[in-house]
TrEMBL record, chains A, B, C, D:
It comes from Aliikangiella maris. The lineage of its organism: Bacteria, Pseudomonadati, Pseudomonadota, Gammaproteobacteria, Oceanospirillales. Gene3D superfamilies: paralog of FGE (formylglycine-generating enzyme). Residues 42-179 form the DinB-like domain. NCBIfam families: egtB_TIGR03440 (TIGR03440). Signal peptide: none annotated. Pathway: Amino-acid biosynthesis; ergothioneine biosynthesis. Transmembrane segments: none annotated. This is Ergothioneine biosynthesis protein EgtB. Residues 1-21 are annotated as: Disordered. Pfam families: DinB_2, FGE-sulfatase. The gene is egtB. Residues 207-346 form the Sulfatase-modifying factor enzyme-like domain. InterPro entries: CTDL_fold (IPR016187), DinB-like (IPR024775), DinB/YfiT-like (IPR034660), EgtB (IPR017806), Sulfatase_Mod_Factor_Kinase (IPR051043), SUMF_dom (IPR005532), SUMF_sf (IPR042095). Keywords: Iron, Oxidoreductase.
Length: 428, 428, 428, 428
């Protein structure tokens, strides 16, 4: 990793060197271990900040198998530091509680069996105060490790340690986003529409254009200068045909026009599997939309609010994004098209980062030459590479500095509890 | 209702007048309204006592659709006083929160729609402290009503008021039992086997006999002297053929012999539907039994303890009780046989009341002449009279004074999270 | 078994000696083995007659797990003679095909494993012509046994042989009824409403009265004079309270009034479990009713015909029967009430036998003193005694001579593909 | 379409011009309409030939929702000619039976509603002989159209007619393959392992090499010279990195080694979703493998035969193919790699065509610039482009002449009832 904040490195023909939006501040390769320690501590604090005004009950409940209780997220992110750093690499480390190895393992078969995911909301013990103690204990142990590595670290170079710590800082940031989306889903089920005073404001869409981008052979994937997840590499050549991409995201107004044109009742627009799903589940509007007395509202983390037509439409599934695109004779971009556009024409595109995740038409798959690392860490990404679709760009609940051009998020095509929206594309 | 503690009233030929065990203290017709007020307050307090050492999270989680969160029980029992007494019958009553009508309605269609039962564990709002305030508010309002009825009661005689209050005191007692069985089920899912320091000790079985009882025409059903639920009447004549009934409950030792004789692997013993269920769900021992290193343990509210062979076997489904009875060439008693034996030969039978609910072979059905009362209260019992089986006698977690000879509990034949056991019978 | 065609035998106080309707011709204890042979042959022929105008495909398909293909019925009824009579009791018997032991075993665990019931429709081999050969082979072998028992029978007295043969003649008759109801269900799924030219005509209801019957102690169960299934005994005393019973079945006109009074939309009428089922499955009329251009039709074995308002309503589930009864402030009779009325007042009741099975409010359970015979035959009835409800009286597709006063049919409370109707009762 | 039998057309840098295996005889653009008529008639006859020794029952049953009854295939392929050619384009065409529009529509929403797919096996009417008449009628009508188009064709040029006929000839060929795979699945459920005397012999694998192929920019997709489906185009540029591809398919011996190395018990090899599926369904060997007395057998269309270790392993799901590849540190090829290798190095690769479909790692998606044609025919392929994976190469049950280099078959990743196998690849 090189010491630079820039993600633009391309030297190939069709790529300029755009400046990235200010909102994207990367946790990049850090100048020294004390800087890393600061980031560690502030990241750990951020998880607690999310829970600040929530009750123990809010942190306990699990609204669906795909979501987890916030208390579980608090424990699991600590478990990750304990399992992958402290246990194997801290001299004489004493585990906080040996049961946690099982209770808070998400999906690492190489670590051992896992408590069944759909039942995480039933783990009322350990209670919240014990989990807070657990976090404190892990923070202290990590601090000892980071502040006097020579005295404590075993079986690991300092550089390897830094890389591991950086990985699990990023891991905790991923869970911070999930904490907010899981919380929103949980509260949305409550018929009283609770508010946690988190205003969801996005940059409005106001003047959408289709930006033309020429064909060419491009480098795709991380550029090695900043932190990245294994699935973002290896960097490789990819030929992209000429295409156009929308400069803005699809707005609530545009999506409403689709609904009012019987979009959810017209099979032509929908993938066959999507058509079955929306009919089986009586879906005829985005997840959090609510119609009351002929007026559309939207459930948000600040409660039920009137639908703002200028805002980008959010909480859209891949199925819905694809149907909407068909309806207006466009399509979704591939993830390579998105990356080429963002990297080289980012200044002409609005709402690229930290607004809404943008569905691409790319099934989540290994890049050419990708091999997961050996051991448990190899389970981080690789084993999910089937039947999911890639989203790019990050959302308003993605932690600042967590996102970059090469970042690949992925969800099943019917998932819609993330802050996901639509950027259109078309073939020239 | 007459003022008497005795449940024995029969004057018919084949019935003696036995004295009932001391443990059965009935909430009977109370001498005056101040006595009723005391019972009201102590019953309300008992619900809180159950929650004493539990966390907000313990009270939030719901382990299965059949169970409810303890917080929900706390709210619903208050809702019942509010809905059936305060709202219609207290002058100028102001509801605590209008949303509760929907949130805490269990199954009363006549009151309105209900929040879906399987999602009760997702109602993190109102939080626990708000529910405690709700309970306090209801208690104060009820106290005002009871201490100066003339000033407050509308559309109701004092006697009707007393009957209604008595009904919902009994209703809250039923929920107290469910709070403990639902809690046990929830905690049992936690792989750390949490203890809440509640020791489950039953009278041991040590000298089981089969007591012979002659045929005859008996009066079945409540005797009108104490409080009773509508399903316990009307009292009616029933001809019972000669039979024998066990003086004690089946012990863990006896049940273990059934297991070791491949009871769960031998289809002959099982009802066809039971055989499908135990195979589909890999059931081969009672719900809370755990085998560790070839030794049997049992999960209890005081944690995991070695199986005590002399104790009655508990948490048995109807399917298991029936299979066990077949295995030893006996059968379960009908509910009429149970009632006749308990009423007339109770002193010769051990573990009759407040030990374990005892499955009978009787499908839960209306007694001859039964008609549910009109309105929402008519939904209390009648609409459940299909596909469930009657249990008699009460368990160690049934509130003292809640049980009587004519009491009919009922559950689906695969249910086993109640404290249910086996008393055998046979035809002569 | 005595040689008599009469099922009326009671000599007890409250019973008169009614004459039974002509339609009830019993296969009773037969005077000699040659008479039995005739009945055997004609019963076997009847199964073939049912299939007369059906294609191999009609006999192959299985419309739901509860139903079986007609080809399977043809094979299974032959399998029963082979398994329970020929194999154990015919000297040097050679099985037709050893695979059939597994393929055509319905549910007899004592015989061995069974081919999974929901997949019976996938057994395209053996094909129909092979099954016809199988039937011929079994008939020949049985004929040899019956015509010269001395030469062929082993391990069985002649009387035992006769009883076994009689049992499996009755078994085949039961399957003949199922063949017709399973066929109707299968064809009803075909959107072309096929006809097999079987006119379903019942005696119309025209002047329903409520007949009063006094309380008393009655003998319930078979009277030993004719063939009976084990579940019809032992005969025992039962006290019946005074009641009234309808002289006729509920008509389509009456049931239509229930529908038009929003019967299916009013939760008060329905058992809680029924309410869930009809809502989950969008049920709002009897199984085979079809509304076309605001007109009610009914699918029958002679195709789609306009609903005849005077005919008894048929294909009603227990849930529907119970809801209808609640709607008109009546109830269903218990099976004992039905039997007492039919036995003693049969001449005042219309449509008692061979019209429609009549739901009773009695859960299917063992009579006092009932024990299933040992071995596989003990699985015939006993293991189904849970969660099903008793029907009495027989239907138009019940073979002539198969029915009697003590006959107990039983189905799950949501079953409606049998010819089942409603006879009302009420408590005095 | 040009008049040529060759599929090799490339003129680009990295492509040689290989000769294709003899077995690949394409239904290409035909020289004249009489040639087309011959192909039409022989294709129609082939469907009947498949059914030659099967009973009406074999053609009726449907073993799972993904499969269809063979009778349904016979009808549906005729329905396709009727719906897309005869009805709109034959002057004064009289439909054979108006109900068929609904009964035999597979999934064309633009044509109208469809009879529910999982219930196709319940359509016993029309019976087999009627479907044979239907086929005859369609053949006669098509023949009239083809032999004197001037007299009969409306709203269509002759060239358009030829293209449509060619499309539905290919459509019928696709169904011929499904008839055999659906038949095998159906018969495999029968515990008697029926044979239809169809020997499944493949070219053995004996000397597998990894062939190295250089990186380059290649043309992917049909070359316009022969018939192709819309999903095979448009032809476009694709950059392929250097890779190696196996010259032979994975053999039963190799796959057995995977099994014996606990391949099905080791989570590391499996995608997360695959691991859940194989555990939930107790899968631990290929679909049709059977172990008897410690010996492996395989169910085939000629019955149960000992597993031949030299033959390629078949009936493998994508999940299994992927796990096997992981186990031996290889991977599956992308569909572009497969096409490049087949087109340019086909002579060095064994078992390319008409042996087994070969899973690729490519999720089934639109090629750049793909847009489905308008109307019902647009539903042929496009709406299935999600969550399925591409297979290439064709199988022994693919009709001769139906396959080509650019052909894209696709199935869900857990599907294994097709003749699907494994060709490995690796990154250099």
């Amino acid at each position: 990793m090189k010491n630079t904040q820039s993600i633009a490195d391309e030297t190939q023909s069709n790529e300029s060197t755009p400046s990235l939006p200010d909102t994207v501040q990367l946790i990049s390769s850090l100048s020294n271990i004390s800087e890393l320690t600061d980031v560690f501590l502030s990241t750990r604090q951020s998880s607690l900040t999310i829970c600040q005004n929530l009750s123990a009950e809010d942190l306990q409940a699990q609204s669906m198998p795909d979501a987890s209780p916030l208390k579980w997220h608090l424990a699991h992110t600590s478990w990750a530091f304990e399992t992958f750093i402290l246990k194997p690499h801290k001299n004489n480390y004493q585990v906080f509680d040996k049961d946690y190895e099982y209770l808070f393992n998400s999906y690492y078969n190489a670590v051992g069996q896992q408590f069944p995911r759909p039942q995480r909301g039933l783990l009322t013990r350990p209670d919240l105060s014990t989990i807070f103690q657990y976090r404190k204990y892990i923070d202290e142990q990590m601090l000892a490790l980071l502040t006097s590595p020579n005295a404590h670290v075993i079986n690991l170079t300092h550089q390897q340690l830094e890389q591991l710590v950086l990985l699990f800082i990023n891991h905790e940031q991923q869970h911070q986003e999930l904490m907010l989306t899981d919380l929103k889903h949980l509260l949305s089920i409550n018929p009283t529409y609770p508010s946690v005073d988190y205003i969801e404001t996005l940059t409005p869409s106001k003047n959408k254009q289709m930006l033309e981008i020429d064909a060419g052979l491009f480098s795709i994937g991380h550029n090695n200068e900043t932190f990245y997840f294994d699935n973002e590499g290896p960097r490789h050549q990819f030929y992209v045909n000429a295409f156009r991409i929308a400069t803005e995201l699809v707005s609530n107004a545009e999506y409403l026009a689709f609904i009012e044109d019987n979009g959810y009742q017209t099979p032509d627009h929908w993938l066959s599997e999507a058509w079955q799903k929306i009919n089986a589940n009586n879906i005829n509007h985005p997840l959090y939309w609510v119609k009351k007395e002929n007026q559309w509202f939207e459930y948000t983390l600040s409660g039920l609010v009137p639908l703002n037509l200028h805002q980008p439409v959010k909480h859209i599934s891949y199925f819905e994004a694809n149907a909407f695109a068909n309806w207006c004779d466009k399509r979704l971009p591939t993830e390579q098209e998105w990356e080429v556009a963002a990297r080289n024409h980012g200044d002409q595109l609005q709402q690229l980062f930290n607004q809404l995740w943008q569905w691409t038409s790319s099934s989540y798959a290994a890049y050419p030459g990708f091999t997961p690392p050996p051991g448990a860490i190899g389970e981080y990404n690789g084993k999910f590479m089937v039947n999911q679709y890639v989203l790019r760009g990050g959302s308003i609940v993605t932690p600042a500095g967590h996102i970059r051009c090469s970042y690949r998020n992925f969800f099943y095509p019917d998932a819609c509890w993330q802050y996901s929206g639509i950027r259109l594309a078309e073939t020239i």
